[in-house]
Amino acid sequence: MTSAWSRRTFLATSAVLTAAGGGALMLAAPGAASAAPEDDPYAALRTTWSALILGEGFSPTAEPFRSRLADLGAKASQWLEAMAPAEGSLWPDAVFADPDPDTDAESYVFSGRMADSFIRLNTMAQAYRQQGTGLTGNTALRDAVLTGLEHLNTQVYNDGQTRYGNWYSWQIGAPQALLDVCVLMYDAIAPARLARYCAAVDHFVPDSAVASYTGTSTGANRVDLCRVLALRGVVGGTAAKIALARDALSPVFPLVTKGDGLYADGSFIQHTTVPYTGSYGSVMLGGLGLLFALLKGTTWEVTDPKRQVVFDAVENAWAPFLYNGLVMDSVAGRAISRGEADDHRRGHPILASIVLLGRGASAAENARWRALVKGWAQRDYYSPPLSNPSLGLTALARIKSVLDDTALTPIPEPAGHRLFPDMARATHRRPGWSASLSMADRRITYYETGNGENLRGWHTGNGMLYWWGDTFANGQYSDAFWPTVDPYRLPGTTVSRKVLADGAGGDWGNALPDVNWVGGVTDTKRAAVGQYVKGLSSTLMAKKSWFFLDDTVVCLGAGIHGRDGTTVETTVDNRNLGPTGNAPFTVDGSAKPVAAPWSATLSGASWAHLAGHGGYVFPGGASVKALRENRTGRWRDINRAGSTDPVSRKYLTLWFDHGTDPSAATYAYQLLPGASEQRTAERAADSGWLRVLANTDDQQGVAVPSLGLTAVNFWFGGSVGPLVADAPCSVMVTELADGTATVCVSDPMRMRTSLTLTWNRAVASVVSKPATVTSATTGASLRLVFGDLSGTRGATHTVRVRLA
């Protein structure tokens, strides 16, 4: 083994070479002078990229880096010892030769193993280049990496090969890892070999891959392809490739109104119908940060002014779905089924990407983002980022630099509501807790499955209501929730118990409910949200409303109908209590058994409380079923690449049993996250706090006098309390202490060319109104006429008035 090199030597050493066998070149001895021309832009780019993917600014002898580097070395040693080049494989457990090459599921496995072989070589190359791995500068490791590159090029990844299986493996997975290795080992690879590797990349990722912004060349995929093209230009010394990569980023920047990309309301869509802020969106954010940093200060710097859209999206699109370091599962698509990466582990790379992106933003943006990241990272008590074993060294270093910055004051979680009509999602933040709602409509899929992943996510778009506390229950969906939860009893959903096959509805988000009325209205503090539900592969129909208020979410359901010959249920909540959890459960002051299994029908229940979580109030009393059970599952059950090891978790479930084939069934309850038993009981006893104005198939509405609030979802026009609408809409009126009121209106169906709303309340004058209001009449009542709302994409329109 050679002696360890300094980081400066590793990043600066270039073309001081000595000949080696087989056409390879060996790195010169540590400390040799660099012969790279100072004006070589490609050498400078290689140095920059090495720093970006290896990390910088950390001590290899300090924790957590010392342990992480040792782990990297151990993994590389494992791959080194197991490598056995053979026909059709580089490792015995990663055979990539496909006996029947096509694009079926089996071929996906073979192409994935090909890409994974390059990823293993990348791990080995990083262990060779990094200090403190135990393999730093190890010649045997170096030679193995070079042998592996050559074997893969000869066997499978070359300009004469026809791709099979998953396009992603050939165009993104394999070439990204290959080019990273080429940068890290550049001085040890003979020019002829580099030329062949570049030719292979050109074959699988030609310039035409970014010729049009369609298909698999949009959003996060486009950024990934641009990364391949840019690094291909860096490795091959081809200016045109780098310029193409830079220019091909531009279609990613503008806001879109359909398909993949960022929307004005903060939505991010990938695969046409899937909300993906927390997975593909994370990849896009990270990729853009890397490319902006790589090209900054060079001839190829990204200067498109529309890149500001991405900077604005940090707080408009990503921040609303980050909470105490986690990124909400409601925008993670099929990634929720990957056992190695829970919501916290998916969130941490986004924090690191925001730090990196800040280098290319304004000083003010950079400072604010770092303060946001510091807050998220510090509050992640459940899974601290610096302890995340899946977080790369570079991301680790960026987050640690923020945590160590004493000049930064962490920004606390904000209070407020965000509605994302373009992806049928909502987030609600209050002091002490946060919630997220996922829905589906004619544009947004029930769920996404594909590549054998997320096989039982069928009902996640049926109104799943996630919630977390500020200092409690942050592991609710992280701790083996997805393989152990009953997939027919996801919190907040109304579903038919009709048995569904794994992957029901088809791959890649193709299954869409034939409904338009999904969305709502918000004043940025509170909200009224509704979903017309039609079940996946079932006859289920329901109207569901959520009123997001100061300390509660009021949940109404009506018109619940099914003809599948099965039970229909609405799950009030399904709390993951962990492997040993026995949180006390109380109903109307009576403690229930803590041992599992236990079940009961709670007839006439007024309220219930789960210690350490929160409370539930049932206005007027209700018959609710409760179950405390231990559930066992395997990640393999929901992801064909998952572990077969059984995992068990305890659950406390509350649900409404609407019976078999119900007609016009209803429900009503309040969710009070973090509420004590006493506060829950007090809310239930205060019969005047909440008035349910309507809960029918035509309208659902509530009034909370103490908040001056009236909110109604009009599934059809009609009259509810003081509000009259002549067409479907969502309305929320709030009377304020200063003698004014806000009237918020939206058209969730995005179809109205006109809408008339009357509020039967004396109004003196209109203080302000949007252009969509074509007429406003005040006096004994307020009459508002809205013009064409069809182009406003379900957005909220707010009128402010002075009360008489």
TrEMBL record:
Polysaccharide lyase family 8 central domain location: 417-676
Keyword Nuclease among record annotations: no
Signal peptide feature range: 1-35
One Pfam family here: Lyase_8_C
PROSITE patterns attached to this UniProt entry: TAT (PS51318)
CDD domains the UniProt entry points to: GAG_Lyase
Keyword Signal: yes
Any one GO molecular-function label of the UniProt entry: lyase activity
Sequence ranges assigned to domain Polysaccharide lyase family 8 C-terminal in this UniProt record: 691-756
Residue span(s) of domain Polysaccharide lyase 8 N-terminal alpha-helical: 49-374
Keyword terms: Lyase, Signal
Domain of life according to the entry: Bacteria
PANTHER family: HYALURONATE LYASE
Family the entry assigns: Belongs to the polysaccharide lyase 8 family.
Name this polypeptide is given: Lyase
